[in-house]
Write the structure tokens for this entry.
Amino acid sequence: MAETLAPVKPGRLIIDGKAVDAASGATFTTVNPATEEPITTVAEAGPEDVDRAVKAARIALDGAWAKMKPIDRSRVLWKLGDLVLEHADELARLETLDNGKPIFESRYVDIDMVARCFHYFSGWATKLTGDTTPVNPSLFTYTLREPVGVVGAIIPWNFPMIMVGWKTAPALAAGNTVVLKPAELTPLTAIRIGELALEAGMPPGVFNVLPGKGRIAGEALVKHPGVAKVSFTGSTEVGIHLMRTAADSLKKLTLELGGKSPNIVFADADLDAAVKGATIGIFYGKGEVCGAGSRLFVEKSIHDDFVSKLAERAKKLVPADPMDPKTRLGSLVSKPQMERVLGYVESGVKEGAQLIAGGQRQPINGKGAFVQATVLAGVNNRMRVAQEEIFGPVLSVIPFDGVDDAVTQANDVPYGLAAGVWTRDVKKAHTVARRLAAGTVWVNMYGFYDPAMPFGGVKGSGFGRDLGEACLQEYTQVKSVWMNLE
């Protein structure tokens, strides 16, 4: 798994249009989880850096960015999308080195989504309008839709590059400025996209990037009085903490949190398509996906045959070098994450689940956080592996008997992020989709996303939405204007 390409340059903070060191001089090392070798050093932001970035963002908010015509903001965002595509190979390499995901996913799936986010939301920069309201003939009454202010965006390590697009593109299109805090484990693509934003013509202070620890830089960002809104994607536990912290300054929040999403296969489904969809639903992204279909509900009449086909498919999905274009299952993001995942597998077996595929670490040359594609059958919905988010390539298969049983079990978790339904019965598909407690339901497909379609959760999966027109509500506020005409 030798890396023969040019070494990765050290990462720096991006504050007020400049690449700078942390005020404290602190750095940390980001590590390739597939080889356990260091990639490069990265400046580690602290509270002083957060303060500098927020102040720069505030100046830009009231200055250059506010004075720029919406059509010009649109052009800058579109240009940034173009630059992402122009630097696709470089960005994909950084993403795979940092995260361990297959280069195929980074290059041919994630890159496209990032670019499309900037391209799609660039169009909204000229289309956010207010309304006139006929209150009284002697009055002119209207509304203005305005940016909320400085946005603090805190993103996770599972889709570092995509999350930059999800968070910053709509915030910037709506006229806000952004201070982005990427995950400590995977900061490299966020830093590089921040550099490309400057190249695209974004004024200094509009897009700031602060790699560092969540409990230090992230906490300071949430507490900072100059931040008007925080958009966070991550665990439910951290989301709850951020909500409590943000309450002190009444910040607006968007929280896209954990998931334990049900993928329901009825006996009348196209079973070959459902097997493939269930495999992609849990093993794409190594299962480190908030919307992963980690609970597979299979109708009892087809259960045994379906599980047999699923296990056969999972066994063919072998962990391999993430930099190999043929690899489809890469390394988990870190050794601690690998140990967490394997601990859940052990827990499931102890509680009575049957391990029918995978379940082991499979290092390459003795190194790497590689875990086999794992299928647990005979799972009861009350087991830990069915109730808690594992965030790895582990699928729990649960039998069900009829629509009511499927819906009841599917909804019987603390989360409500996504769900899948497989059936040829259109009436059943619509009925079940309405009854599922989830922010997204895929029918006869799984794990599809588009910048035009909102994504977010209910219950323990958070509130607010990323993507789509709906997310722009999260990044704007309405002002009412009354004018006396007499």
Q: What stands out?
A: The longest strand covers residues 139-147. The two ends are 78 Å apart (CA to CA). DSSP finds 16 helices and 19 strands in the chain.
